[in-house]
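Chapter summary example: a protein plus manganese (II) ion.
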Amino acid sequence: MSAADVRPVVDPARLGKRIAELAAIGGNGRAVTRLGLSVEEQAARDLVGGWLGALGASVRRDAAGNLIARFGGDGPAVLAGSHLDSVLDGGRFDGALGVLCAVEAAESLRAAGARFRRPVEIVAWADEEGARFGLGLYGSGAAFGRLPAGAAERRDALGVSIAEALRALGERGEPEAARLPAGAAAAYLELHIEQGPRLERAGVALGVVSDIVGIFHARVTVEGRADHAGTTAMDARRDALAGAAAMLLAVEALARSREGVVATVGELAVRPGAKNVVPGAATFSLDVRAGDAAALEATIREIRAAVRRVGDERGLRSTVDVLSSVPVTPLDQALRDLFMRAAAAEGVAAPVLVSGAGHDAMNAQLAGVPAAMLFVRSTGGSHTPREHCDTADAALGAAVLARALGELAC
Ligand code: GLV
Ligand code: MN
Ligand code: MN
């Protein structure tokens, strides 16, 4: 049967039921917390792997903790999926929807009698969010050979390293071993909620991603001098937290001054952390993004200069440790066109969007594996329990994904 003869029919009720079932893992009825390489993320892999195994896929977990379910025999595979981990107190759709729609696409293709001319792999990348170890896009980074040096030794807040978390799952603690051999992946398709308001405002259910913003992650450490809060005069202090506050306001002002640039300080730690001690040290995170590489670079340069200037003015020592730096990533034009055609066939004139969020598709594309992303309208923002996606929109997305997969693999 050729791709043109296959008529996959997605089942919105089945998809809706699976969204609810998955949300119960790490969920409290409101928010979902399924951190990377945790027991909850593994339970989610088990649930999804069970569905795919029942469809006839051969299901495995790789050395990094990624779930890979393969239909078909040897040769380069067409990959489709997303991630199953969440941020702390996150929603039920970020990442999860992409995996569930890929399962739905595969199931509807099988039910329509499709035979895969090329192998298809449904994937769930481990720890995309980096919410536990501070290393975003971890699982796809391992698979596509883009892990930073020393990744296995990154530690969570309790001191557990990635290698130890992998060993607790029964792996060897060597995520680099998950690297896919050259040529193993022919293409990567990822469906994801939009996580922003543009599709809702445009009144369209689906969009096709042109580029993903460049993302710079760093940790800034500010060192001053801890002192008695009652006996140290204001002009004799080297208050690390006050310095960090001035730095992060400078970060905000610099990002505001440039169109299309966003910068966030989302983590802040103070030592020794007592109300009657002048802060001796402060550490904060830095997340800077832009769709324009030059604007991103200029902003990072200016942030570094501002951190130095504030430190000099206040007698503080500061260091900026870069955790990761992923460039602006244009996605594959031919696969974007494929998603456009597939959306049109489902009656949707999908607008082209730039993604402000990072996605595993970046690692595929940057490793030379053509990648494309389909966005599904979502409301309520994202990385919060308010994030929402209508099942009807999700099912439409799954139908488009099924068409695109069918065209590539059948
Ligand atoms: C992932 O959600 C990111 O963009 O940080
Ligand atoms: Mn995501
Ligand atoms: Mn996310």
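Key point: Residues 145 and 179 are 5 Å apart (CA to CA).
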